[in-house]
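Fold this complex.
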Amino acid sequence: MRTDVSQINESTPYMELTEGLQIYAGGTTKYFNTGEWRNNTPVFHEDKCKQCLLCAPVCPDSCIPVVDGKRGAFDLDHCKGCGICVKNCPFGALEMKEGVN
Amino acid sequence: MNDRIEIRWHGRGGQGAKTAALLLADVAFKIGKQVQGFPEYGPERMGAPITAYNRISDQVIRVHSNIYNPDYVVVVDETLLHTVDVTRGLNPAGAIIVNTCKTPEEIAPQVAPYNGKIVTIDARKISEEALGKYFPNSPMLAAVVAVTGIMPKDVFLNEMRASYEHKFAKKPEVIEGNMKALEMTFDAVENRR
Amino acid sequence: MAIRERMSGNEAVSYAIKQINPDVMPAFPITPSTEIPQMVSNYIANGEIDTEFIPVESEHSSMSAAIGAEAAGARSLTATSSAGLAFMWEELLLAASNRMPVALALVNRTLSGPLNINCDHTDGMGARDTGWIQIYAENNQEAYDNFIQAYPIAEHKDVRLPIMICQDGFITSHAVENILLLEDDVVKKFVGEYTPEEYLLQPGKPMAVGPYAVSNYVMEARKNQLIALKNAKQVILDVAKDFSEISGRSYGLFEEYRTQDADYIMVIMGSAAGTAKEAVDQMREEGHKVGVLKIRVFRPFPAEEIAEALKNARAVAIMDRAESYNGNGGVLGCEIKAGLFQKKYMVDTVNYIYGLGGRDFTVAHTMQIFHQLSDMVENGTEVEQYAYVGIRN
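Structure:
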């Protein structure tokens, strides 16, 4: 029987943990809100964006969704605010702002 | 325990003393004996002196140590007589079997103070005559079987033929030569009795 | 019907592997275990088994690949010795903590220095705290039998831990001896197919293996791993019982040879146990009440059971074929003494270090040790508590 990983947390007693701490589910990192680690937040100026898409592949946390050849708004639940996308944008369409929002 | 025969082989790396010890274990196994055949590894290099051992018994063999008081010693390379104390611990009621063209009388001073039985076998001559090449293994194996009396000649030859037929399935031309080498050695040893 | 054969320990283990036909074998050669991957490769090349052999560039990789294959759902194994095992050290812990029932044929050899290729238990003892099950063999027969029991133990749902099947380098691995083999179909049926419940290559059932764990998970994870290792004790006995039904050969956590009424007992592991038994038989004929306790299962360590088996002895010689450099004795010496103390059995013990780097251990050595024990107990003679057997001085 597969243990429901959403039921496991840092208070779970040892008897209820999985064998070898294996995680019986896929894509579970998206449940982990790493966005709350952020000190600086990228801002997207859509009017300056040429949709060159140089930003999306350099994001280490896959927080720039690309749909139908166009990038969308940042996934701020997972963006850690590293600023790599901002450095990489040739058109000044991205900037870093201090703070979590 | 009393029926156990212990043999120590002295050779040089690459000459096949280990292989001969394993062949002896093999043939003794085939007649229903409990056997051990194992090498003692030193530098593991071509030409370096090596030692191999056999225990052959009707009882299960549990000991896993080297052999210090062999009943028989086999010297595959005569030059080892100068460098290795081949007769060390050798049972005086047993024998030393040396691959040489010399006679036992000529070898005796080289293995003194051991004064037990010495058997000499010219494995080179036999091998070259029977096989056209120098492979001391078969003659030395036959000599050991003949001297120790582990099994009668016909049983030995039958078992060896079967094993050669298996081993040399792709080179049947060498089977007869090897059989001839075994037979020549056996007869040479028996004639000297 | 058993098949009468004669083969070396390496041949015997390779033959067991052939009969089991595991899925994946990554391996890197090292003396004296090299023959095992070599022989298995031959079986594969001859089409006798369809094991996937992965030639890797190091033991670090062979164990990594074995873990990966196992995680993917394949029954995997490797073989190594000495420095090869040391080079796997990190992965040994990973295999155990990730609960991968990998099998490892360990052909015991010392570690440098001085550089030496021969037998002692330095490699196996070095891996004693890695969470692996370790089973030792006296001879080729036991190496073969233990390997056949390896997967049923390791893969058992209460265990799911990696297992090392150990035999003494050269002394067993390269010695041709008589052996009784089981038929292929008997082995196949006994070992069965590997059917893990969870594995990586299972469509629609994603999973992750070996995740990062913050401190709040680590002690709980280790506790679970320890429970699994302790469970192995019963599973090893159960599997041994099933094995005796197909083979007629019985195994326990350890073997007690003429110990029931023995005043003096030697505790020993590996090929030298046979030599010690021979000495016991000879001494019994002269009226000495001596016996041998041969450790088969080293991990999980049967400390309590051994303490029970030794409690009536007047003195015990504990034989270690490895130096532990703790300054207080060998691994077995320390663990057995701890077990006796825990049970409050105040039995006199003497710890001996023997057979390092292939140094021969003989019937005469065994007898000397028994005489030393009796001299200590009966005449009050001082005996060195932590002595090297046969050392030149």
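The first strand of chain C starts at residue 3 and ends at 7.
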